[in-house]
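Blinded run. Sample ID left blank on purpose so nobody reads anything into the name before looking at the predicted structure. Input follows.
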Amino acid sequence: MALSLPRPHRVDVQIAVGSVLAGLALWGLGLPMQTDRLLGLNWSLVPLLVLGGAELLRQSMPRTALIIATLALTFDQFTAGNLASVLMFTDIMYAAVVYGTPASARRIPLTTGAITVVLTVGLLAWWQEPEAVLIGVATGIVSFGPAATGVLVRNHREATAAAKLRAEQTALLAEMDRVQAVTAERARMARELHDMVANHLSAIAIHSTAALSLDDERTTRDALAVIRENSVEGLAEMRRLIGILRDAGEDLEPTAAPTLDGLGSLIAGARTNGLDVTLDDGREPEGPKLPAPVELAAYRIVQESLTNALKHASPGLVTVTLTQGPRSLDVHVTSPYGSPAGPRAPGSGAGLVGMRERTELLGGAFESGPVATADGKVWDVSATLPVDPADQGATP
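Blinded prediction complete.
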């Protein structure tokens, strides 16, 4: 099976060709690095060409290139030598640290540093001449110097790559936060739109159906009056919603969000639409002010419960009960469960989803469904809303 070598990088080819040509020029000019060696100047071409071939592998096979280069440079010490060969060896040593494995990047500087120290001390002890230090310094420049430079470059590249990765992760997290914020805002506006308009449109649908189905002038006029009232109120609510969506600086400022102080008007409007509603407000008149998100959620839950009762409940009493405890506000709405006697408006189930979402966003508990009582089966809506900020936001 033939050995398949990786294709050398273009830069490696350029370095190899340039280095070999420079070495050939030095050889042609008769400029050796050392004299009185066992082999002459012509033999220096062998390690020169071998090191040129090793340069082709400096990135694709850095470990193999370093082994070949080390053997070639060792052989070069027995020849007249060539400066280009030494420079190619330093480049291959550098590349072995930069492009090699993390283990090689750790071992090579330690190994070359140890060789430099041992060689310097050994030659100094053997020769007992100061020139031995110069040989040790030269060895360190050729081996340890490129390895140490490679470590610095590799660390810088890894730090740059890590910083780039962190930046990409930060950008990804920011995009995820943006998408979540947009989704949450869309869900909030969907709840607001449903809660503000659904009640009025349901009343309009029911009374318009009654006006069309009953051939009675007084009933028709009463139905049209209710339709007009709900149309005007629905239009006002839509304008408020548009005011919220508009940028600041408009001539008309959006009105404040509804609070539990507006429950009386809400109950009165439900009675106008034909519901028999009673309100049992158990809040303390002089008690602490409820947080605005709690008041808004409670108001919307009552509003949506009355809307559902108008659309789906059978004739009977609808009760709204508010109970304020030390740590929570309980909202309880019951309506007769059964087939409505009059016209019925279609429902999509978005109201129950919205009520549950409002409750869970505050860390509360929500339940809805038919319940059997002594007076018959009723549809029961119960929501517990924490009033302590420390309790809000927790998953129930």
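Unblinding after everyone has recorded impressions. The beta strands are 276-282, 317-324, 328-336, 365-373, 376-386.
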